[in-house]
Automatic annotation (TrEMBL):
Name of protein: Chloramphenical resistance permease RarD
Family indicated by similarity: Belongs to the EamA transporter family.
Organism of origin: Shewanella mangrovi
Record-annotated membrane-spanning stretches: 9-27, 39-61, 73-92, 104-121, 128-145, 151-167, 179-197, 209-235, 247-265, 271-288
Localization per record: Cell membrane
Amino acid sequence: MADTEYRKGIVLALSAYIFWGFAPLYFKLIQQVAPLQILVHRIVWSFVLMGILIALMGGYGRIRQLLKQPKQLLVLTITSILVAANWLLFIWAVNNDHLLDASLGYFINPLVNVVLGLLFLSERLSKLQWFAVALAASGVAIQLISFGSIPVVSLALAGTFGVYALLRKKVNIDAMTGLAVETAILLPPALLVMWFAEGEQASHMLTNGWHLNLLLVAAGVITTIPLLCFAGAAVRIPLSTLGFFQYVGPSIMFVMAVIVFHEPFDMEKSVTFGFIWSALLVFSFDMLRRRRRLTVA
Protein backbone atom coordinates (compact mmCIF):
# COMPACT_ATOMS: atom_id res chain seq x y z
CA MET A 1 0.00 0.00 0.00
CA ALA A 2 2.81 2.40 0.88
CA ASP A 3 4.54 1.74 -2.46
CA THR A 4 1.25 2.28 -4.31
CA GLU A 5 0.67 5.61 -2.59
CA TYR A 6 4.28 6.65 -3.30
CA ARG A 7 3.84 5.84 -7.01
CA LYS A 8 0.58 7.81 -7.04
CA GLY A 9 2.45 10.73 -5.48
CA ILE A 10 5.13 10.60 -8.18
CA VAL A 11 2.50 10.55 -10.93
CA LEU A 12 0.59 13.43 -9.34
CA ALA A 13 3.78 15.50 -8.90
CA LEU A 14 4.80 14.96 -12.53
CA SER A 15 1.26 15.78 -13.68
CA ALA A 16 1.26 19.05 -11.73
CA TYR A 17 4.61 20.30 -13.00
CA ILE A 18 4.06 19.15 -16.60
CA PHE A 19 0.68 20.90 -16.51
CA TRP A 20 2.33 24.10 -15.23
CA GLY A 21 5.10 23.77 -17.81
CA PHE A 22 2.69 23.65 -20.76
CA ALA A 23 0.33 26.31 -19.33
CA PRO A 24 1.88 29.05 -21.55
CA LEU A 25 0.35 27.32 -24.59
CA TYR A 26 -3.08 28.06 -23.15
CA PHE A 27 -2.30 31.73 -22.52
CA LYS A 28 -0.92 32.08 -26.06
CA LEU A 29 -4.31 30.90 -27.36
CA ILE A 30 -6.00 33.89 -25.73
CA GLN A 31 -3.23 36.45 -26.13
CA GLN A 32 -5.67 38.78 -27.94
CA VAL A 33 -7.30 39.29 -24.52
CA ALA A 34 -5.67 41.84 -22.18
CA PRO A 35 -3.66 40.22 -19.33
CA LEU A 36 -5.83 41.89 -16.66
CA GLN A 37 -8.97 40.47 -18.28
CA ILE A 38 -7.41 36.97 -18.39
CA LEU A 39 -6.56 37.33 -14.70
CA VAL A 40 -10.15 38.34 -13.91
CA HIS A 41 -11.54 35.26 -15.64
CA ARG A 42 -8.93 33.08 -14.00
CA ILE A 43 -10.13 34.29 -10.58
CA VAL A 44 -13.86 34.02 -11.35
CA TRP A 45 -13.80 30.55 -12.89
CA SER A 46 -11.34 29.21 -10.34
CA PHE A 47 -13.78 30.33 -7.64
CA VAL A 48 -16.66 28.57 -9.42
CA LEU A 49 -14.68 25.35 -9.92
CA MET A 50 -13.42 25.35 -6.32
CA GLY A 51 -17.01 25.78 -5.11
CA ILE A 52 -18.09 22.74 -7.16
CA LEU A 53 -15.16 20.63 -5.96
CA ILE A 54 -15.72 21.52 -2.30
CA ALA A 55 -19.44 20.71 -2.68
CA LEU A 56 -18.56 17.29 -4.14
CA MET A 57 -15.60 16.43 -1.91
CA GLY A 58 -16.55 18.23 1.29
CA GLY A 59 -14.73 21.10 2.89
CA TYR A 60 -17.30 23.68 3.91
CA GLY A 61 -16.64 22.79 7.56
CA ARG A 62 -12.98 23.80 7.20
CA ILE A 63 -14.01 27.06 5.54
CA ARG A 64 -16.52 27.86 8.32
CA GLN A 65 -13.80 27.18 10.89
CA LEU A 66 -11.39 29.42 9.00
CA LEU A 67 -13.89 32.30 8.91
CA LYS A 68 -13.74 32.39 12.72
CA GLN A 69 -9.99 33.08 12.67
CA PRO A 70 -9.38 36.73 11.64
CA LYS A 71 -5.57 36.45 11.78
CA GLN A 72 -5.54 33.62 9.26
CA LEU A 73 -8.01 35.49 7.05
CA LEU A 74 -5.70 38.52 7.11
CA VAL A 75 -2.77 36.36 5.99
CA LEU A 76 -4.92 34.83 3.21
CA THR A 77 -5.87 38.32 2.08
CA ILE A 78 -2.17 39.08 1.65
CA THR A 79 -1.51 35.75 -0.10
CA SER A 80 -4.47 36.35 -2.44
CA ILE A 81 -2.91 39.68 -3.52
CA LEU A 82 0.49 38.02 -3.98
CA VAL A 83 -0.87 35.13 -6.05
CA ALA A 84 -2.95 37.53 -8.19
CA ALA A 85 0.17 39.64 -8.83
CA ASN A 86 2.12 36.48 -9.72
CA TRP A 87 -0.60 35.26 -12.09
CA LEU A 88 -0.88 38.66 -13.79
CA LEU A 89 2.87 38.99 -14.26
CA PHE A 90 3.15 35.45 -15.64
CA ILE A 91 0.30 36.05 -18.12
CA TRP A 92 1.90 39.32 -19.23
CA ALA A 93 5.31 37.64 -19.61
CA VAL A 94 3.95 34.79 -21.73
CA ASN A 95 1.86 37.00 -24.00
CA ASN A 96 4.61 39.60 -24.47
CA ASP A 97 7.35 37.14 -25.50
CA HIS A 98 9.08 37.02 -22.12
CA LEU A 99 8.61 33.29 -21.48
CA LEU A 100 12.37 32.90 -20.99
CA ASP A 101 12.18 35.44 -18.18
CA ALA A 102 9.28 33.53 -16.64
CA SER A 103 11.24 30.30 -16.91
CA LEU A 104 14.24 31.92 -15.21
CA GLY A 105 11.96 33.19 -12.43
CA TYR A 106 10.74 29.71 -11.60
CA PHE A 107 14.29 28.34 -11.73
CA ILE A 108 15.28 31.03 -9.21
CA ASN A 109 12.26 30.32 -6.97
CA PRO A 110 13.75 27.33 -5.02
CA LEU A 111 16.75 29.46 -4.09
CA VAL A 112 14.48 32.31 -3.01
CA ASN A 113 12.63 29.82 -0.79
CA VAL A 114 15.93 28.86 0.84
CA VAL A 115 16.77 32.50 1.59
CA LEU A 116 13.27 33.21 2.95
CA GLY A 117 13.52 30.13 5.17
CA LEU A 118 16.80 31.48 6.52
CA LEU A 119 15.37 34.95 7.19
CA PHE A 120 11.92 34.13 8.54
CA LEU A 121 11.83 30.48 9.63
CA SER A 122 15.21 30.34 11.40
CA GLU A 123 16.37 27.62 9.02
CA ARG A 124 20.10 27.08 8.67
CA LEU A 125 21.94 26.86 5.38
CA SER A 126 24.69 24.36 4.75
CA LYS A 127 27.94 25.51 3.13
CA LEU A 128 26.81 24.14 -0.22
CA GLN A 129 23.48 25.97 0.04
CA TRP A 130 25.32 29.21 0.78
CA PHE A 131 27.48 28.53 -2.28
CA ALA A 132 24.36 27.92 -4.42
CA VAL A 133 22.79 31.20 -3.26
CA ALA A 134 26.08 33.02 -3.95
CA LEU A 135 26.21 31.58 -7.49
CA ALA A 136 22.65 32.73 -8.19
CA ALA A 137 23.35 36.19 -6.80
CA SER A 138 26.52 36.36 -8.93
CA GLY A 139 24.54 35.60 -12.08
CA VAL A 140 22.15 38.46 -11.38
CA ALA A 141 25.02 40.79 -10.42
CA ILE A 142 26.96 40.01 -13.62
CA GLN A 143 23.87 40.77 -15.70
CA LEU A 144 23.46 44.06 -13.86
CA ILE A 145 27.12 45.12 -14.10
CA SER A 146 28.13 43.74 -17.50
CA PHE A 147 24.90 44.16 -19.44
CA GLY A 148 23.38 47.07 -17.54
CA SER A 149 20.08 45.32 -16.91
CA ILE A 150 18.40 43.29 -14.23
CA PRO A 151 15.91 40.40 -14.70
CA VAL A 152 13.01 42.30 -13.13
CA VAL A 153 10.28 39.96 -14.39
CA SER A 154 12.17 36.86 -13.24
CA LEU A 155 12.94 38.26 -9.79
CA ALA A 156 9.37 39.55 -9.36
CA LEU A 157 7.89 36.14 -10.26
CA ALA A 158 10.29 34.32 -7.92
CA GLY A 159 9.77 36.88 -5.14
CA THR A 160 5.97 36.99 -5.20
CA PHE A 161 5.65 33.21 -5.33
CA GLY A 162 8.34 32.74 -2.70
CA VAL A 163 6.66 35.08 -0.20
CA TYR A 164 3.30 33.50 -1.08
CA ALA A 165 4.66 30.03 -0.26
CA LEU A 166 6.23 31.32 2.97
CA LEU A 167 2.96 32.85 4.22
CA ARG A 168 0.93 29.80 3.19
CA LYS A 169 3.39 27.62 5.12
CA LYS A 170 2.95 29.81 8.20
CA VAL A 171 -0.85 29.85 8.00
CA ASN A 172 -0.90 26.05 7.53
CA ILE A 173 -4.13 25.62 5.55
CA ASP A 174 -4.71 22.86 3.00
CA ALA A 175 -4.44 23.79 -0.67
CA MET A 176 -8.14 23.39 -1.55
CA THR A 177 -9.46 25.46 1.36
CA GLY A 178 -6.77 28.08 0.91
CA LEU A 179 -7.40 28.53 -2.83
CA ALA A 180 -11.18 28.64 -2.28
CA VAL A 181 -10.83 31.44 0.28
CA GLU A 182 -8.21 33.32 -1.78
CA THR A 183 -10.39 33.30 -4.90
CA ALA A 184 -13.41 34.36 -2.78
CA ILE A 185 -11.40 37.35 -1.49
CA LEU A 186 -10.36 38.27 -5.04
CA LEU A 187 -13.84 37.72 -6.53
CA PRO A 188 -15.47 41.12 -5.74
CA PRO A 189 -12.68 43.25 -7.31
CA ALA A 190 -12.49 40.79 -10.23
CA LEU A 191 -16.22 41.16 -10.92
CA LEU A 192 -15.93 44.95 -10.70
CA VAL A 193 -13.11 44.94 -13.27
CA MET A 194 -15.11 42.60 -15.50
CA TRP A 195 -18.19 44.83 -15.31
CA PHE A 196 -16.58 48.25 -15.70
CA ALA A 197 -13.89 47.42 -18.26
CA GLU A 198 -15.83 48.93 -21.16
CA GLY A 199 -14.34 48.36 -24.57
CA GLU A 200 -12.00 45.59 -23.38
CA GLN A 201 -12.34 42.38 -25.33
CA ALA A 202 -13.81 39.58 -23.20
CA SER A 203 -14.94 41.99 -20.48
CA HIS A 204 -18.55 40.98 -21.21
CA MET A 205 -18.94 37.36 -22.26
CA LEU A 206 -22.21 38.02 -24.12
CA THR A 207 -20.23 39.82 -26.81
CA ASN A 208 -17.73 36.99 -27.37
CA GLY A 209 -17.84 33.95 -29.60
CA TRP A 210 -18.50 30.61 -27.90
CA HIS A 211 -14.95 29.36 -28.55
CA LEU A 212 -13.38 32.35 -26.76
CA ASN A 213 -15.82 32.00 -23.86
CA LEU A 214 -14.91 28.32 -23.51
CA LEU A 215 -11.23 29.22 -23.43
CA LEU A 216 -11.85 31.86 -20.75
CA VAL A 217 -13.86 29.43 -18.61
CA ALA A 218 -10.99 26.93 -18.99
CA ALA A 219 -8.83 29.37 -16.99
CA GLY A 220 -10.39 27.84 -13.87
CA VAL A 221 -9.26 24.37 -14.91
CA ILE A 222 -5.76 25.61 -15.79
CA THR A 223 -5.49 27.06 -12.28
CA THR A 224 -7.05 24.42 -10.05
CA ILE A 225 -6.16 21.03 -11.59
CA PRO A 226 -2.34 21.27 -11.25
CA LEU A 227 -2.70 22.74 -7.76
CA LEU A 228 -4.87 19.81 -6.65
CA CYS A 229 -2.39 17.35 -8.21
CA PHE A 230 0.40 19.10 -6.31
CA ALA A 231 -1.58 18.92 -3.05
CA GLY A 232 -2.22 15.21 -3.61
CA ALA A 233 1.48 14.59 -4.26
CA ALA A 234 2.56 16.55 -1.17
CA VAL A 235 0.75 14.16 1.18
CA ARG A 236 2.09 11.01 -0.53
CA ILE A 237 5.81 11.67 -1.09
CA PRO A 238 8.51 13.41 0.98
CA LEU A 239 8.94 17.15 0.45
CA SER A 240 12.58 16.60 -0.53
CA THR A 241 11.46 14.27 -3.34
CA LEU A 242 8.76 16.69 -4.41
CA GLY A 243 11.37 19.43 -4.60
CA PHE A 244 13.21 17.74 -7.45
CA PHE A 245 10.13 17.88 -9.68
CA GLN A 246 9.92 21.68 -9.43
CA TYR A 247 12.48 22.01 -12.23
CA VAL A 248 10.21 20.18 -14.71
CA GLY A 249 7.89 23.15 -15.25
CA PRO A 250 10.49 25.85 -15.98
CA SER A 251 12.50 23.39 -18.11
CA ILE A 252 9.46 22.85 -20.35
CA MET A 253 8.93 26.62 -20.49
CA PHE A 254 12.58 27.15 -21.45
CA VAL A 255 12.44 24.63 -24.32
CA MET A 256 9.15 26.09 -25.60
CA ALA A 257 10.45 29.66 -25.40
CA VAL A 258 13.55 28.87 -27.50
CA ILE A 259 12.26 26.20 -29.91
CA VAL A 260 8.52 26.91 -30.28
CA PHE A 261 8.27 30.68 -29.77
CA HIS A 262 11.82 31.53 -30.97
CA GLU A 263 12.63 33.96 -28.18
CA PRO A 264 16.26 35.15 -28.45
CA PHE A 265 18.65 33.33 -26.12
CA ASP A 266 21.45 35.90 -26.22
CA MET A 267 24.70 36.21 -24.27
CA GLU A 268 23.01 38.15 -21.47
CA LYS A 269 20.46 35.40 -20.83
CA SER A 270 22.95 32.56 -21.31
CA VAL A 271 25.28 33.95 -18.62
CA THR A 272 22.44 34.42 -16.13
CA PHE A 273 20.88 31.02 -16.85
CA GLY A 274 24.34 29.42 -16.60
CA PHE A 275 24.86 30.73 -13.08
CA ILE A 276 21.32 29.82 -11.99
CA TRP A 277 21.59 26.29 -13.41
CA SER A 278 24.97 25.85 -11.69
CA ALA A 279 23.42 27.02 -8.42
CA LEU A 280 20.55 24.54 -8.83
CA LEU A 281 22.99 21.68 -9.50
CA VAL A 282 24.84 22.49 -6.28
CA PHE A 283 21.54 22.85 -4.42
CA SER A 284 20.19 19.53 -5.76
CA PHE A 285 23.45 17.73 -4.93
CA ASP A 286 23.21 19.01 -1.37
CA MET A 287 19.59 17.83 -1.10
CA LEU A 288 20.53 14.36 -2.35
CA ARG A 289 23.45 14.15 0.08
CA ARG A 290 21.25 15.14 3.02
CA ARG A 291 18.58 12.63 2.05
CA ARG A 292 21.13 9.80 1.84
CA ARG A 293 22.44 10.68 5.29
CA LEU A 294 18.91 10.59 6.72
CA THR A 295 18.25 7.23 5.02
CA VAL A 296 21.46 5.73 6.43
CA ALA A 297 20.70 7.13 9.90
